[in-house]
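Pilot study result, target chain (462 residues):
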Amino acid sequence: MNVMATGKSKLLILSKSTLQNGKIKTILESEGFRVATTESKSSVITRLKDNYDLLILPAEADEQPINEFVMTIRRSFSGAGMIVIVDPSNELAGVDAVGCGADDYLLNDSSPERIVTTVQAVLKSVRMKNELNVFKESVAMSYGYDNIVGLSEPIVEIRARAAKLAPTDIALLINGPSGSGKELLARVMHYHSKRRNHRFAAIDFSAHTTDSARAVMFGPTDDSSTREPTILEEADGGTLFLDNVDAMPRDLQSLTAEFLSDFVICRGTPAERRVDIRVMTSTSRDLSEMVANNEFDSELYSLISEISLQLPALSERVEDIPLLGEYFLRQACRTSKGKEIGLSEEAIGKLLAHHWPGNVRELETCIKRATALCRGDMLEPADITFASASDPVEGRREFRLLSTRGSSSLMDDTQRSLISRALDDNNWNFTRTAAELGIGRTTLWRKVKKYRLTRQTEDVEA
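Predicted structure:
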């Protein structure tokens, strides 16, 4: 429900036309609230569907126990405020109602000032809660599995494994070259876990000195009484992401291993306590090789690598470049609030010919830059510039010499095959297929039309 900040919020009173409820209605209407009444519990559910912001009901309403009714309302209308009116001789009923989901209670002999103050406080609290829930939902949507874009086999497999692992608390190590999307994958899994309403607390060890990393993790070495919470405290209930863990200072590795053995912080102090954290880490180096060379703590390695996921370099999934280009182009147009821009076949050919040493991150930056430079309604090769003008890596030279039409045809064949197989595997269910491929339903429909894919046996299931 959309709770208004002004006195014109919509209030519903469950009333048996008693003198007291009539008094409450008069008081609230005098403050500018829009107040309606209903005389039966059965009608409350129907009336609340009209976007009322607050329900006021007496504890002794009808024969149904009030707590049971409160729980019913809360399950159906989690965004509505609720205040219960109780008799002064039975104030405990109000306490019980709050425990069952009501926001507050009032005594039926409360002063007008107390009534207005309580209603305003509940409306403000509910508004803030609803705004927070909307924000959390928008954040979670920003980190849907469809943000792991691609049709290549490695990416399809990554999405499938991520969906299975996200609800668990298993320690996850994400391997992959710089710019391949390791933090994005970790965030997607966090926002699809039971920990989504708590912090995703990240520390990038490549951006810290030994002293600063230690202070962020475990606090300052002095006994400052005004110290800020450590990242371990902030991550309590949520996810701790140790980015570029291969760059973690050697002496900090042993301290971290000690913490991960029992999740106790402030060890040996009056503030000692255990925290509830899921740990995810990322690296662009082979940690097992670092352990063998005595460059990384073996105990820490075993604690953070219960499961490993390997993200490929962009050069290893070339067939994903057109989709990624289109995805980043849509994002760039949305961010700049400009007109929609298309990606020409010739521009795709230029993207395919580059070797992308900076991986997906470099491609995203390249598309943002090209969008800013584009003056037409189609992104053309002239709009695309690269941060590095170096030649493509060995093994890609022949591909670069292909004509634009030839390279585009190669990508079309690959995408046609992958989409056709995914549709068949999902019995041509577009919703499931789009989710598995990490693309939107509209994009999937467009690809099916482009490649003239048809289902041979039955009609397409939308």
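One observation from the pilot: The first helix runs from residue 19 to 30. A full batch analysis is planned for the follow-on phase.
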